[in-house]
Amino acid sequence: MAMAMLRAYTGVSKVTCPRCGQALGGVNETACERCHQPLKLTVCLAEADLTAWIALIVSLCLPAGPGIIILVLYVWGQLPPIGPADISVTYVFVYCVLAVPLLLVALLGRRRFARMDQATRWHLAVPAIFATGLFALLSLAPGLGW
Questions:
Q1: Burial level of 106, CB count in 10 A (0-12/13-18/19+)?
Q2: Residue 13 Ramachandran class (φ > 0 left, ψ -120 to 50 alpha, else beta)
Q3: Residue 23 forms part of a structural domain
Q4: Shared domain check, 71 and 96
Q5: Is the residue at 136 inside a domain?
Q6: Number of domains in the chain
Q7: Which domain holds residue 21?
Q8: Summary count for the chain: helices (H), strands (E)
Q9: Does one domain contain both 112 and 67?
Q10: Residue 139 — very low, low, confident or very high, per pLDDT cuts 50/70/90?
Q11: Residue 38 three-state SS
């Protein structure tokens, strides 16, 4: 019964293997022919819970804005020198600059992120949230010479 439903569905829909992308038109087996990923027809939500993804994006947007400004100043040669004793300033600069490509990866990888299980999504989002919190503390705390 399940195989008949899977064959009927893949026969009328343009479906690809979730692992390797192989076209699954009218499959005759319960696994992908190319990568041998087991196949099953299921019903699920159209959009996964994206709370962790939104938290990740927000936590990366905050330092990415200053990161873009730092990159522009660096390209123009206007970035002031930072001494080795300014470890908190160095951390803030490095994190801001690294947040720019991380934000792009997170934005472009939304679908892949949504396919992950919820624990994995939060394991990716929580470090960015904590790093952004530390960024905020170091950049806004009095007495850091800002």
A1: buried
A2: beta
A3: yes
A4: yes
A5: yes
A6: 2
A7: 1-43
A8: 5, 0
A9: yes
A10: confident
A11: strand
